[in-house]
Amino acid sequence: MYHVMRLLIQRVNKAQVTVENKIVGKIQQGLCVFVGIAANDTAAVLEKMANKLVQLRIFEDPAGKMNLSLLDVAGQALLVSQFTLLADCSKGRRPAFIGAGDPQKAEELYKHFCKMVAATGIAVQTGIFAADMTVLIENDGPCTFWLDSEK
């Protein structure tokens, strides 16, 4: 089975991630993005996805049309690693995570992805890789989008 990087993107009024009762990342208007790194992801895939993320026109313009990007609205990004996005639930009742990247490599790629998004000028906050996190999201819309690197 072929696995790809996945982003679950939520347009938010605000969002925060907490680890051990401490807020480790917090944003106002922008995007809360759950990031799933696949076993075969590369820097080229991450660059493509970072550019797509910040340029995706999912914020409303003055006419009420989704016509503005995260860059256009000077929004922030909360990027949270989440290997469960790569779960295969097609067989049985227990998810399989064989498509998720090796934890050490995935952590490196996740951090690299965060740097790529920040390099576009977006203010980036993150969770803590592999930590047990609590994420609070005030979804705006609600607007939620799924982005796979191969679609």
Q: What is the CATH first-level class name?
A: Alpha Beta
- Annotation field: number of helices: 2
Query: Which fold name fills CATH's third level, the topology?
Result: D-tyrosyl-trna(Tyr) Deacylase, Chain: A
Distance from N terminus to C terminus (CA atoms, Å) equals 16 Å
Helix content bin: 10-25%
Domain count: 1
Element-level helix/strand string: EEEHEEEHEE
Second CATH tier, the architecture: 3-Layer(bba) Sandwich
In percent terms, what proportion of residues is strand?
35-45%
Q: Please identify which CATH superfamily we are dealing with.
A: D-tyrosyl-tRNA(Tyr) deacylase
Class of secondary structure makeup: alpha/beta
* Structure summary, number of beta strands: 8
Detail the poorly predicted runs.
Answer: none
Largest sheet, in brief, is: 6 strands, mixed
Structural commentary:
The protein has 151 residues and is an alpha/beta fold. 19% of the residues lie in helices and 38% in strands. The model has no long low-confidence stretch (mean pLDDT 94). The strands form two sheets. Strands 1, 2, 3, 6, 7 and 8 form a six-stranded mixed β-sheet that branches. The protein has one domain: D-tyrosyl-trna(Tyr) Deacylase, Chain: A, CATH 3.50.80. It has two helices and eight strands, in the order βββαβββαββ.
